[in-house]
Design a protein that fits this description.
15 strands; about 375 residues; alpha+beta
Length: about 375
Amino acid sequence: MSDSIKMVETLNKGRSLVSCRPLKAGEIVLKDSPILLYSAVPHGADVGANYCSHCFRTIPNSPHSPTKFHCPNCTTATLFCSPNCQSIALSTSHTPFVCQSLTLLRALDSLPHDHHLQVRFLISAYNLAMVSPSHFQTLLSLQGQTFTDDASLTFLHTFISSTPNVGSFGFSVELTAALLAKDKLNAFGLMEPFDQSKERSVRAYGIYPRASFFNHDCLPNACRFDYVDSVVECGSNTDIVVRVIHDLPEGREICLSYFPVNLKYSERQTSLKEDYGFTCDCDRCKVEANWSDDEEEEEDMDDDGDDDGDGDGDGDDGMRVDLETEYFPHAYFFARYMCNKENCWGTLAPLPPGDARPSTVMECNVCGNLSKCEVS
């Protein structure tokens, strides 16, 4: 995958990504592009009201904003941020098949939001089979548990089977179920910009074929960044970047957290079981499994009260230890690697090291805040 990570088979975990060599804090281990993107705009909203329907950049809504470019063939208010996005989309992500399918979807006013998202995914997945069979095969090769909601499956397959031109590709109920399983286990959310005053929501979901192999840990040693609204010099604005948050030895598995690290043990376990089908037994969970809810609340209060946000370890009550020891105290993780901006709960990673020297600037993967830190 790169000169820094490789895929291996891990007991009880399946495919995992591990370091090929010692890694420095802040080092980029993966840049990955999506093979499929679909909108997460709430049901009933105009498809292109806020974002480009191809690259998902925010389209400014002001008299001084650039001209908005519409799809010339559909009635779903699909917008693009530029003639280039419009041109690319009409032959890739917004083909006549997608156009006609979204028009049918728009007529289903009473469709629950979860079903709305699943239909959007299926439209994008079936379109992928038409425009890029190799990427469609990559999608099918990803891990995914059996989709068992028979009532939902029947409805979703009936809808997608009624869309124009889909019958000629031989799609079946079994294939629909397999695709939905891939989406459930592998989709990454491209998020709205951080706003302290409201809950952060998803603007789009994407399937990133290489990033999907990162396993979860409740004390991750890496985190992912996306820069959807940025102007990027290399690659696409919808690429995601994964950086390690501290030094790692060769052969260490690289893990992300599938949700904000501040969640309690019971919340984490429920989310992992319902969304990903497994129970976590990482080092942190082994410690917190016997805690009561009161103990977890007290721990949260201690973390909030002690962390002065400068990453110097003063808030860990003398618990600074080597990161490789067996009993890695999560109090230290919270003090050094969790953003202290109100309502953020993001993970901090150093900027990529330069000239073989570690960076002294930490970046939050949620709010984007940059802060100074001491090099340990």
